[in-house]
Amino acid sequence: ESLDKGLEKSKTSFLDKLGKAVAGKSKVDDDVLDNLEEVLVSSDVGVNTTLKVIDRIEARVARDKYLGTDELNAILREEIAALLSETNTGNAVDFELPESNVPYVIMVVGVNGVGKTTTIGKMAYQFKKAGKKVVLGAADTFRAAAIDQLQIWADRTEVPIVRQEMGSDPASVAFDTLQSAVTQNADVVIIDTAGRLHNKVNLMNELTKVKRVMQKVIPNAPHDVLLVLDGSTGQNAFEQAKQFTAATEVTSLAVTKLDGTAKGGVVIGISDQFQIPVKYIGVGEGMEDLQVFNKFEFVDSFFK
Ligand code: GDP
Question: Distance from the CA of 184 to the center of ligand 1, in angstroms?
Fold first, then answer.
């Protein structure tokens, strides 16, 4: 129910638009397809993924000769679920971790303001609730506020944090954090990193160095590079995904702020275009407002 609540505005809006796209039409024709294309693009599904969806529907129209607009909703659901299935294989329901990597190291990347710190705090809360021992690492040393914000979440969730002062070497913080996690027998380590995008080479160098130094403590760390994107920023989120995937190997996504916005389409487009699974979605500012992504629930909510 909370996912429904969180995505309420996006689904209303998408369905409204879809309704308008087929208004007065009983069959799917070129006009309807044009309208549908607009609806998908304006819902932030992204141009590439939109064209893919339109192509598939066109192919069905060509094959079946006739497609009623009353069937469009169901067919769209099928096609979108199919796209999400290519990357989001699991039907995850909780905050479990693979037992093969202990501690499990998650390096979190993303631009400032997208909800990175909040997402880390929510993850810490959920993992702890699931009985895991969590350690946080404040390797976004560029902004004092970033360290302070993470400290607030560490206090709130009663999870240990490793930090140094502002301006210190992020790789050194990451190293300390992993060492501390190993000593404490932690189950999961979540490392915050700086989110400056002003220079791609700098970003790449910094992330590469943080990774390399982590590997001195745990050879196959990080086990997950989680990119946090703000789901309410549409094209910006696509652009950030492009930049971060160019700078480092991103292995999963968290999409935030899917409450109170009409931008759930970003989840579909980015997951498809970059072939990266969405692991979490943020649906509010509170500790509990993080959900493990479930593609079936997502599609249901998007279309309800
Ligand atoms: P950071 O700079 O990326 O670390 O961003 P923060 O974690 O500080 O978050 C920026 C703002 O977005 C804060 O006001 C958060 O409360 C808010 N925020 C983060 N995630 C969500 C979410 O899922 N929904 C809503 N509504 N707000 C969020």
Answer: 29
Print the SS3 string covering 47-96: HHHHHHHHHHHHHHHHHHCCCEHHHHHHHHHHHHHHHHHHHCCCCCCCCC
Least confident of 121-125, 193-197, 277-281: 193-197
Structure tokens at 274: 């970059």
Span 25-63, pLDDT tens digits: 999 999 999 999 999 998 999 999 999 999 999 999 999
The residues lining ligand 1, judged by C-beta closer than 6 Å to any ligand atom, are 110, 112-118, 149, 256-257, 259-260, 282-285, 289
d(CA 190, CA 14): 35
Measure the CA–CA gap between 115 and 250, rounded to whole angstroms: 17
Question: pTM score, two decimals?
Answer: 0.92
- Asked if 174 contacts 137 with a C-beta cutoff of 8 angstroms, the reply is yes
In this predicted complex, what is the ipTM? 0.99
- Phi and psi at 109, nearest 5°, equal -125, 160
What was the pLDDT predicted at 68? Answer: 95
The helix/strand/coil state of 152 is: helix
d(CA 178, CA 219): 11
pLDDT in tens, 167-192: 999 999 999 999 999 999 999 999 99
**Pairing mode, strands 134-139 and 161-162:** parallel
- List the residue whose alpha carbon is closest to atom 6 of ligand 1: 115
CA distance 189 to 62: 52
